[in-house]
Structures are given as C-alpha cells and as structure tokens.
Amino acid sequence: MPFALQDPTRLAVDSLDIHRGAIDKTTVTSQCPIRVMPWVKRILLETGIEIQKIGNYNYRCVRRAKEGRVNSSESSTSADSFSSVEGGEDPEASSASDGNDSDSSDDTLQDAPTPGKVLFGKDEAEDPGDEIVFSVQLTKLTGLDCICLDIRRLKGNLRSYKFIYDTIVQRADLCNQVFPGTT
C-alpha cells in the first residue's frame, strides 16, 4: 500500500524536504519514510560510516581514511561530533509500526546495530581510501507519492565517494525492499 493513504506516514512525508537535482531511479521508493530511515542507518553503521543526526530524516556522515593515509581534510572534521552507536536491533523490528519515528531515540544504545568495520574498495583505482564527508537525506518528489534517498558528497575524493554511494544504494536496494507492515 502506498504511503499516501496512511495518516501518520503522511505527516512524516510532509516533513521531508523537496528533492532538488538529478534523481537516481534506484534510490526512489514508495515505502514509508519511518521504515526506510532506520534501514539506511543500519547500512551506514554496518559499513563503518560515522553518522551525525541533523534531522529526523537527515544525517551528516563521515567515512574515515585508511590507516596511514593522510588527507588534507583530516584536520577539519572532528571525530567528537560523530557517533557510531552500538547495539543490535534488527531493522525489521523497529518501533516504526506505532507511527513514531524510531530514529528519535538515537541516544540510546539499544536502538542501533553494532558498527561494522570501515568499508574500503579492493582496488586503489576504485577507492583510494580517502576520508569523505557526505549527507544522507530522505526527500520527497513533488507530484509523486514517492520518496528519494538523496546522498550528496560534501568533501573528499570523488572516487571514494562513488564507491560509498554505490555500496549504500546497492545494499539499501530500495526498489526491491519490502518493509514490514507495508505489504
């Protein structure tokens, strides 16, 4: 069932920013944003991405550089402003079914999966392993009952960003993902 007919979900969609720019069709879904964002958060944490919550549906993310690699951007990003929360909840077992944003309890340790090992590409040409800073946000598409996972590079190597972008989009698989309670 599209989220257009569900009242608590409609409020969540109405709070999303309008998408601006190009659209990657693999990041578009008609699923409920209350269920999509915890799924995306889990993927970020499992790939070793540090996240900082900006809003209910907006994160600022950092993938740290490989050990021994020196970046010009290292000194400008403070590790203290980001968190990889520990815990172990399954994304399908979120409290989203009650209509509340399950992401609202970011400060508690029971909410999030255990942070994974930082993910790097196998080949230097594919991913040099530089630190990258990027944003991950759910946005709404005007005129459609769809939302879009908007991932934007803020700072860092373009090849490293492309590797992380492709990995997140592939693991999220929003085109084919069916979340509980939305069949």
If you had to describe this structure to a student in words, what would you say it looks like?
This protein has 183 residues and is of the alpha+beta class. The protein has one domain: 2-Layer Sandwich (TATA-Binding Protein). It has helices spanning 7-14, 33-46, 158-172; strands at 17-18, 28-29, 50-55, 58-63, 132-140, 147-155. Strands 1, 2, 3, 4, 5 and 6 form a 6-stranded mixed beta sheet that branches. Strand 5 (132-140) and strand 6 form a beta hairpin. InterPro entries: KA1_dom.
Pick out its properties.
183 residues; alpha+beta; TATA-Binding Protein
What topology does this entry show?
Layout: H1 7-14, E1 17-18, E2 28-29, H2 33-46, E3 50-55, E4 58-63, E5 132-140, E6 147-155, H3 158-172
How is this structure best summarized?
The chain is of the alpha+beta class and 183 residues long. The chain is built from 3 helices and 6 strands, in the order αββαββββα.
CATH superfamily: Kinase associated domain 1, KA1
User: How does the overall form come out from the CA principal axes?
Assistant: elongated
**What's the domain count?**
1
**Helix tally?**
3
Radius of gyration: 16 Å
Number of strands: 6
The CATH architecture is 2-Layer Sandwich
Strand percent estimate: 15-25%
Helical percent range? 10-25%
Taken in chain order, the helices and strands follow as HEEHEEEEH
Backbone structural class: alpha+beta
The main sheet comes to: 6 strands, mixed
What do the pLDDT scores average to?
A: 74
CATH class group: Alpha Beta
Show unreliable segments. Answer: 72-113
For this structure, the CATH topology is: TATA-Binding Protein
Distance between the termini: 6 Å
Region (Disordered): 70-124
InterPro entries: KA1_dom
Biased composition (Low complexity): 72-84
Domain KA1: 125-174
